[in-house]
Structures are given as structure tokens and as C-alpha cells.
Design brief:
Length: 432
């Protein structure tokens, strides 16, 4: 199949580079070449006969990478409150989710994925609690690292079934990739944690773990006290007592570069440095942080330690939207010192690294998937946009409108792909 050349007034291959009048050559579902300016576009078009498809007064950029979501919970939008204890919220979540059938959860996951695409997200790390999301999303255009959730809530009788489900083969899909999510150190017994770690290593599947999200979690692990006591039926030896959450994760062999640690609001002494040494990725969810009215997130501490920090939306049970533009805006409001370049990187390349897609998603580069987004910014024809950094500043403050989205080189509208002539889909890397 022939190549397609997309051009725009501005092309942002990543947060550090801006190409005025550049273009992106797409072939076989991947990016074949980046053209650095108008003259390069003209030369390529004359030499190859490929006519540019000009997007006009837009920013052409990589699609956002949402490093953490619970798309099956989209149906719970607006039904839970962030007030009260975290244990109270968990009880409400369990109650509301139990009222949803597998069919409801599948439809909910698809609606959530549609909303991600509407906001310019092309790739997501989604946690699936029972298989409904996996069934639905394997047919959806969005690219997914699908983490099967595993937990036993301190009850060894549940461990066998949880592990059996985690061990099932994944159905083949061009855009769905396997992963595992032992839910959290306080909901996964030591034996189950170890078994999941061994399974992840054997299958070479990346993992995602909720960690150090609340003080209640830390208190429970350290002293078996606090509001979580009534939720968990701990049996002797099912979860190691008086270990930090990170020790439990490391003990299962999961503390490594293939791990996404979600939240990390309350690390113990030495944890930040240990995460940095392991090259694991921390995922911060500004919308959920705001929903619960939590204390300021110590972002500077993590970045100064050299930890890669990615952004996620979490689910609509703890966030009013599934829009990475809003997550970037909330992040910059909470951390005014943060540069637009770093913010954009956290919503793209850092997310790709969290999901094990480094070099394939979150940036426009030869060999990467052709997952792109065109943004329009009101007033972008004015002279002020010539100032370095102005466009990226506006984009990371949530001021862009999504003009169009491509996944694997296919234009996507409302969760359904349109297949332009000359573009074919491939889940692999470009031959170049």
C-alpha cells in the first residue's frame, strides 16, 4: 500500500521539538519519516508523487498516552463522592459496580475508550477486573495495554481463581497487549503476589500496581489498623504484616523497569530512591488527586530523584472526566513551576514508557505507530504563536480543540476507524 503524507502548520514530534510546516509520512500503520519543514515536504512530494494531506492551521502531535484507567467504570460517572474515608469510597464502589452486568461493563469500557479518543488519547493502560473490558476493547480502535486485575482481599480461598483467570491466554488483537495488575499490597496476599510475579516474568508481561495511595493503606500494612480493617479478611500469613507496600512488591519480583506504580502519594523513607534505581515508572492521576481533595503531590521530589512520572486519568468513579488535556491543566495548576515541555512529555512519552511502548507510542518518530492527534488552538493564527513555547503552553493548559485523531494511520471518529485510501493497519514496527 502507498504512503500518506500528513502536513500541518506546526508539527510537534515531542515536547522538545517544533517543526513549522513539517509533515509526517505514514506507511503500513507506522511512521516512516518526519519531514522537518515546508521545503522538505515539497521535495518529498515531488520525488515520490505523494500529495500532502494538509490539515491547515493545526498542531500535529503524538496522541496522548493515558498510563492508568479503569474504563469499565465509565458507567459510574458522578455516582460516587470523594468525601469521607477511602474505605467508605471503596465500599460505595463495590456496591455500585456489583449492580452492573458483564454486558454493562463492556459497554461502559467502550464508552470510556470513545471519550479518550475524543480527547486526543490514542493509547491507554486499562485495568480490567473481570474480563468485560478485555472482551470489548479487543475490537475497539484505541490501543490498549490491558492489565488483568488480580486480588484476594486477604482471603486465600479467592487466590486460586484469581490466578487461574490471570493465567488464561489473551485473545489475539492488533491493538490489545497483555499485562497484569496485582491490585495493591493491601489487597493481594503474599502467596498470590509471588505467583503473579512469577507469571509476569514467565510471560514477560508488564505489571501495574496501585501503591501508597492513602495513609489508610500505609497504616493497614504497618499495623493492621484503621478504616481498612473492616474491608479486608486477612488470614494468618496471607499478607506479610509490618512490611511496606514497596517491600511486598519487590518481594514478588515486580520492582523493575516493566512496572507502573500508580499514585505513590505516601512513600516510606527510601522508597523514592528505590523506585529510581529500579527504573520503574510512577503514574500520577491529577483528576483523582483533586477528586479526593488530597494533600499536594510531591512531584518535584520524584522528578529530582530521576523517576519517570507519567499521567493517567484513572476512572470516572474518582474523576469527572477522561481527558488528558484536563490532567495536564490540573497538573500545571498544582505545580506552577512545571514546564510545558515536561508536562507534555508526562502525557505522551512517559506514558508510553510506563506501558512498555517506549519508542512506539507517545512520539512522532520513524518506526513508531502512526497514532497522531491534530489540535486547533483558538487564535492560533495570531502573531503571538510565533513566540517559542506559546503553543505548547496553551496545549498543556487544556486550551486545544481536537480536530482529528489517527490510530495505526487510520482516522478515527467516535471510536470507529475510517480507512483513507493508501493506509493499511499494522501492529508492528515500520520496516524502516
Amino acid at each position: 500500500m502507498g504512503a500518506v503524507l500528513l502536513t500541518a502548520r506546526w508539527v510537534f514530534p515531542d515536547g522538545e521539538r517544533r517543526l513549522d510546516g513539517g509533515g509526517v509520512v505514514v506507511a503500513g500503520g507506522c511512521i516512516a519519516r518526519i519531514l522537518t519543514g515546508r521545503s522538505a515536504v515539497v521535495r518529498f512530494s515531488r520525488r515520490t508523487g505523494v500529495r500532502p494531506r494538509d490539515l491547515g492551521n493545526c498542531i500535529l502531535a503524538p496522541g496522548f498516552v493515558d498510563a492508568h484507567a479503569h474504563l469499565e467504570l465509565t458507567a459510574l460517572e458522578g455516582r460516587l463522592s470523594g468525601q469521607g474515608s477511602f474505605a467508605t469510597w471503596i465500599r460505595a464502589l463495590i456496591r455500585e459496580r456489583a449492580a452492573l452486568s458483564p454486558r454493562d461493563l463492556s459497554a461502559s469500557a467502550c464508552r470510556g475508550a470513545d471519550r479518550l479518543i475524543a480527547g486526543g488519547t490514542t493509547c491507554v493502560g486499562d485495568v480490567d477486573s473481570g474480563g468485560a473490558a478485555e472482551s470489548a476493547l479487543r475490537h475497539h480502535p484505541v490501543r490498549v495495554r490491558l492489565y488483568r486485575e488480580v486480588l484476594d482481599a486477604g482471603d486465600p480461598a479467592r487466590a486460586s481463581a484469581a490466578l487461574q483467570r490471570a493465567n488464561r491466554p489473551f485473545a489475539r488483537s492488533a491493538r490489545l497487549f497483555p499485562g497484569l495488575s496485582p491490585h495493591a499490597p493491601y489487597t493481594v496476599g503474599a502467596e498470590l503476589f509471588a505467583a503473579v510475579g512469577a507469571l509476569a516474568a514467565r510471560r514477560r508481561w508488564p505489571a501495574c500496581v496501585h501503591w501508597a495511595e492513602t495513609e489508610e493503606e500505609v497504616e493497614w500494612l504497618a499495623r493492621e489498623r484503621g478504616p481498612l480493617r473492616g474491608l479486608l479478611s486477612r488470614q494468618p500469613g496471607s499478607i506479610s504484616i509490618r512490611r511496606t507496600g514497596l517491600e511486598a512488591i519487590a518481594g514478588a519480583g515486580l520492582l523493575a523497569s516493566h512496572l507502573a506504580l500508580v499514585h505513590g502519594n505516601h512513600p516510606s523513607k527510601g522508597d523514592v530512591e528505590r523506585v529510581a534505581r529500579a527504573k520503574a515508572v510512577l503514574v500520577h492521576c491529577p483528576g483523582t488527586h483533586t477528586f479526593f481533595g488530597r494533600k499536594p503531590f510531591d512531584l518535584r521530589r520524584w522528578l529530582d530523584a530521576g523517576v519517570t512520572v507519567a499521567l493517567g486519568t484513572d476512572g470516572l468513579a474518582s474523576n469527572p472526566d477522561l481527558d488528558m488535556r484536563r490532567e495536564m491543566s490540573l497538573l500545571r495548576e498544582a505545580h506552577p513551576w512545571l514546564s510545558p515541555e515536561t508536562t507534555f512529555d508526562m502525557a505522551t512519552r512517559a506514558g508510553a514508557r510506563a506501558l512498555g511502548f517506549e519508542g512506539r507510542a507517545g512520539e512522532l518518530a520513524p518506526g513508531a505507530w502512526a497514532d497522531l492527534c491534530a489540535h486547533r488552538i483558538e487564535g492560533a493564527s495570531a502573531g503571538e504563536w510565533s513566540r517559542p513555547g506559546a503553543l505548547l503552553d496553551a496545549l498543556t493548559r487544556g486550551r486545544s480543540k481536537i480536530a482529528s485523531v489517527w490510530i495505526s494511520g487510520r482516522a478515527v471518529r467516535r471510536g470507529r476507524p475510517e480507512i483513507p485510501r493508501g493506509i493499511s493497519e499494522s501492529s508492528g514496527r515500520s520496516a524502516e
